[in-house]
Amino acid sequence: MFHPKKMLATFAVGLSLQCAMTGTAAADKANDTLTAAFQFQLPTFDRYYAGGREGYLLGLLVYDALVYRDPETLEFKPLLAKGWRQIDHLTLEFDLQQGVKFHNGDDFTAADVVYTINFVMNPDNKIFSPETAVWIDKVEAVGDHTVHIRAKKPTPLALNYIMQLAILPAQYHQKAGKDAFGRAPVGTGPYKVARGSGNSVIFTRNEEYFDGGGKNKPHIGKLVYKTVPDVTAQVAELMTGAVDWAYYIPTDLTERMRNNPRIKITNADTFRVGFLTMNIANNAPENSPLRDIRVRQALNYAIDRKAVATSLIGPAAQLINSACSPLQFACRQDLPAYEYNPEKARALLAEAGYPNGFDIDVYGYRSRPVAEAILGYLRAVNVRGDLKWMQYPAVVKARRDGQATIVIDDFGSSGVADAGYILSFFFNETSDDLSRDPEVSALVTRGNELLGPAERKASYGAALERISGKAYWVPLFTMPINYVFSSSVDIPVPRDENVEFWRARWK
Amino acid sequence: MASYLTRRLLIAVAVLFTISLISFLLLKLSGDLATALAGEGSNAAYVEFLRKEYGLDRPLVVQYASWLGKALTGDFGRSFYFNDSVSLLFASRLLVTLKLGVLSILLALLVALPLGVLAALREGSWVDRLVQMLALTGQAMPVFWSSYLLILLFAVNLGWLPISGADSLAHLALPACALALNALPALLRITRSGMSEALVSDYVRTARAKGLRMHSVVFKHALRNALVPLVAIAAVQFGLLLGGSVVVETIFAVDGIGYFTWQAISQNDYPVVQAAVLIVSSFYVLLTLASDLLNMWIDPRYKID
């Protein structure tokens, strides 16, 4: 951001004083309109070309997928499919809901599912998240309301991807074409796009929304998607009551709003976890101190993760002991924790032949205060980090090219509630795998090919145990975010960032 | 005069070319564009696919030449984020930015003119010192800070004006004030010094000697002459306002080219960033050129030079 923090803080103090005095926040209950603020505009209303978190939320509002993930239990539940089963190791069979209609009145049938999946599988269509479809071999309708989706190889994460595939109305989508569909979208979802573009989009309740899926007909009739790019302006909008809901508000700003009785603040977890990666792959320097396990262990002991999490991340942050989010399936956290012990860290470094420590480049891109704190802890055990602060793409490139020896990194798993996703990304012999341990990789591959939950759990669990034992990472903490909303509205706070506006109610 | 004009035009073209080259290279230095385009959490194979797909694996010279060739025909490519023509996206946002810019410069002139004249008439008095202090404060205050102060006072505290959007004049009031505060100091100073000079000039003394009324001397004789450099400066300030609108439009959620540029930077939408730099600098260069030509018209010494 372009504003210095101190000035921002001073502004926030001003705001908090005003809020405490006036307490002006008020939701537009009289007009049954909930206004939510977001940082970025929706580039299009076509789910497959609207990336980022905002695009994901659009997908949930306007469209439905075959399955739905409960944001509290993280279990898969019916949505456009009322049931499903694995009929062989590659094929999933879905029984579709009957009587569901698209916003334009078209009936939802198996043909729409087949059309959508064929559309997203076609590389010429260049959808923004091809990983949700690349695993599919073919899709076929075996009746008006039954489809088979066949994977190229056993894919235990299949439902995690299917829940992201918004079903399109075959006839209308084909007739309208990509650009026109992006302007006038049609789905089966709980809200319809009523009007607007750019900084203000109005969604209205789909009065015909079907029962029997995990979502419900919205309680609030109108939802306004308001783009307010500046987070401080978002806070001011919340204060004046022009906005009822916002998220990703930094803790230093939320703390100053706590006195306002008309504002509710919740710090809630996400799948994102923070960690340090250490390069010991083939492209790392031969004499890198990180190649010695004692050095990697020392770095694990050197950082007071609890202090950093409490002071800089948020009250909902949890310490993690392994390379995954505790919310994810098969994520083991029962592994030995490296407690904060700088003495032990220094001893391990001395034992490894570095009694005076060493100098090393440390790359970072997300939170400068967190990076500075971590560097401070490392410096205290004589690991003198030189902070290379860059944009995310530059850090990723440096990491993949082997230049970035230590990265203060984080990963959100693209919303996939399964440890297999993060493990496959960082520990499966890809260019993001900086440990290149064949044993870990074999365990991850095995987990990826098994369909039985217990077997997968065992395989990933063994991989996580070895990663922890070899100290390939310094796992840090989960990275919760702040939700701020008007206290006159009751809106469930999800565990996976998938905000369900259709469940919001006026108090 | 023709050679002066040709020289100025050639300089303008050279400046634009240099800007396009520097912005292209800076973007390349800012990180791996294919990784940025693939988005967070994308695997290396997908990054490589995109690198080929968008021609980012070609030599830099080829990439630049190809971009420049198309840009000269008004084709800035497609936005990665909006998946639409960059030229059309800019065109649809230009009007609101121009509206905001015009409103801001008018507002700044409306304040700068009377205050500048007043300060010149009362040179050395407390009024003059107050005006100078105002100019200094305006100059020293970053535009984002004045924006926040305006929000705090007029939206949060008094509740008179909306914070974000551009639906009505009321929505544009705060961003226009913030930008006007930014443009005010230069205009205030030039009015004051122009008027001070004019007031001690021979023609003003003659006008006074003729027994003309003070009102007539100030507005008909002195101000008309003092206005000329002000118009030239206002043209340049207008260009600066378009650049400054990146910050103001982002804070006040005005859907113009400034906010569009900020969003493109945040989303690593580099065809838009590249076009934004060139388009905004073109405005600035054209306005500077216009101001040069205006000066030439006013002051014959430019023609000789």
Helix vs. strand class of chain A: alpha+beta
The low-confidence parts of chain B are none
Report the C-alpha radius of gyration of chain B, rounded: 23 Å
N to C succession of SSEs of chain B: HHHHHHHHHHHHH
Please tell me the overall pLDDT of chain A.
91
Shape of chain B: globular
Q: Return the CATH class of the largest domain in chain A.
A: Alpha Beta
Number of strands of chain B: 0
> What is the rounded Rg of chain A?
24 Å
> What is the β-strand count of chain A?
20
Feature tags:
heterodimer; A: 507 residues; alpha+beta; D-Maltodextrin-Binding Protein, domain 2; Dipeptide-binding Protein, domain 1; Dipeptide-binding Protein, domain 3; 3 domains; 7-stranded mixed beta sheet; 32% helix; 21% strand; disordered N terminus; B: 305 residues; mainly alpha; 13 helices; globular
Describe the 3D structure:
The complex is a heterodimer of chains A (507) and B (305). Chain A folds into three domains: 23-39 and 190-267 and 482-506, Periplasmic binding protein-like II (D-Maltodextrin-Binding Protein, domain 2); 63-174, Alpha-Beta Complex (Dipeptide-binding Protein, domain 1); 273-478, Roll (Dipeptide-binding Protein, domain 3), CATH 3.10.105. Chain A contains 15 helices and 20 strands. With 507 residues, chain A is of the alpha+beta class. The model of chain A is unreliable at 1-7 and 16-26 (pLDDT under 50). In chain A, 51% of the residues are buried. Chain A starts with a helix and ends with a strand. In chain A, helix 1 runs parallel beside helix 6 (231-240) and helix 8 (293-302) runs antiparallel to helix 10. By secondary structure, chain B is an all-alpha fold. In chain B, helix 5 runs antiparallel to helix 6 (126-140), helix 5 packs antiparallel against helix 10 (214-251) and helix 11 (257-266) packs antiparallel against helix 12 (270-298). At the A-B interface, helix 1, helix 6 and helix 12 of A face helix 2, helix 3, helix 7, helix 10 and helix 11 of B.
